[in-house]
Amino acid sequence: MRELEIYIEEHQDSFYRLAYTYVKDRDAALDVVQNAIVQALTHIHTLKDAAHLQTWFYRILVNEGLTYLRKNKRYLPLEEL
Known about the structure:
The protein is mainly α.
């Protein structure tokens, strides 16, 4: 668990940049990173090999970004198309 905390502290800027590339909104990117950190801390026990921490966390971050996009889709009325 300590390894995860250190990793998060050292790479938070790159997490934000990745989240921002998905959601294109500053506040939403911060929310996505925060949700990813909560998910990682909650599910750290599922990580089998600490050597895969980076890949594991980035997958969580990407999934949180995609979840955000799915939940916040904007629909255009058919009349506008």
